[in-house]
Amino acid sequence: MTGKKLGVGVLGAHTWAEKAHLPGYANDPRVDLVAVCDVVPERAAAMAKMFNIRKVYTKPEDLIADPEVQMVDVCTPTDTHYALGMAAIEAGKHVLCEKPIARSATEAFALARAAEAAKVRTKVGFTFRYSPALRQIRAWIEDGTLGEIFHIHGLEQNSQFLDPYFPLRQVPQGADFQPKHPIPMSIVGYGSHLVDLVRWMGGEYKAVVSSMSNYMVERTVRGYEGLQKINVDDGTVALVEFASGAQGMLQTSIVAVGNYPGIEIRVYGSKAAAVGRLVTERGIAETLHFATADKVEFEPVTLPDSHFPPGTSLRTEWRELYYRNLVRLWIGEILENRPPEGDFLDGARSQEIVDACVMAHVERRWVDLPLYPDA
Ligand SMILES: NC(=O)c1ccc[n+]([C@@H]2O[C@H](COP(=O)([O-])OP(=O)(O)OC[C@H]3O[C@@H](n4cnc5c(N)ncnc54)[C@H](O)[C@@H]3O)[C@@H](O)[C@H]2O)c1
Q1: Atom 18 (ligand 1) nearest CA
Q2: 0.85 surpassed by pTM
Q3: Confidence band for 1, pLDDT divided at 50, 70 and 90
């Protein structure tokens, strides 16, 4: 420990900042929580009090310009990410941004390239990369324990929006609610994580085919009165061909009965297989099971302490567990000059794959990747 601290400023002081980002910073002794900003002043003031943050801003440009802020955390609604992320990069700050990092893959690639040119570090809020179980699976892929990878299955599904009176968020203002094809919803909100997790495990995608479905014909939508007839994708399934030759199957759903976060990753290789299940049950955040070609019965695995931030366990609430791990590794990347992981280029690739899934559904065909080879 060098005693070096990183000055952090957080934009957006609402639900996800309170449950995930701020507990992550507040528990890391290498972080100096300099400032918080929200366009709703009471929210910023409440978070400053709760997490002992020194300065409160209501204009994001003031936080970004603060010389004590070395890293800007963008935890605001999706349609603000690009402008805030770009402003922070242009000010020479390191940036963490929630997913998706922009409204389109084109914008996301522009952010990644701008950060590269400005030589600043970036990180996407890909929460589940920081699950101890999924980090163990990834380590087994890297060290050859699983052998050649044949199949990867990824699910992100829970019942968050099964109740039509639970308002949909992140619907762009002025959107056409009844387009011919569903407005991408589960494939963006959940899919941006899932396609990234599966790419992290299986490498680059070669092609995808998919099907998107709407089940809840009427819903409440944040910012609108009463029930709305709205055609969104409540669930998407996709098949993947990886460049390596491996096969993948994906499902995202916001109407599948089950608890949060509802992620399951199964990886089957020539030597062994692993199943990580991130579904909080009986107070336990996640489980990992492992089988080998000789001993095909899956057995539970005890996860090594090194995958957990100090003071956490599988009984830590999942948002806090994963975000404390994300912050621990992210601060280490910056202060100890470690290789980047889950950065804006990964965020842009994730948006490109989501776009390919949507295109495959709309055009009823396999879509080759990369979609934007020059981006
Ligand atoms: N990684 C994950 O697993 C995960 C989970 C949940 C949410 N998220 C993402 O986190 C982000 C925040 O989610 P949330 O549920 O807290 O959203 P929210 O809408 O509840 O809160 C966002 C806050 O940002 C403030 N805000 C809006 N524009 C701003 C601006 N220009 N400058 C400063 N503040 C501004 C709003 O007033 C609000 O208080 C979203 O992008 C969401 O998609 C990610």
Answers
A1: 14
A2: yes
A3: very low
**What is the SS3 assignment for 91?**
coil
Q: The domain 129-313+342-368: what is its CATH number?
A: 3.30.360.10
Superfamily assignment of 6-120 in CATH? NAD(P)-binding Rossmann-like Domain (3.40.50.720)
Q: Angle, to 10 degrees, between the axis of helix 132-142 and the axis of helix 191-202?
A: 30
Looking at residue 250, what DSSP letter applies? Answer: E
pLDDT tens digits along 141-194: 999 999 999 999 999 999 999 999 999 987 877 889 999 999 999 999 999 999
What's the average model confidence in pLDDT over 281-290?
98
CA 76 / ligand 1 centre spacing (Å) = 3
Buried b or exposed e, range 84-107, using 16+ CB within 10 angstroms: bbbbbbebebbbbbbbbbbeebeb
By most ligand atoms within 8 Å of CB, the mutation choice from 11, 14, 61, 82 for ligand 1 is: 14
Q: What is the pLDDT of residues 3-16, one digit of tens each?
A: 789 999 999 999 99
The DSSP call for residue 79 is G
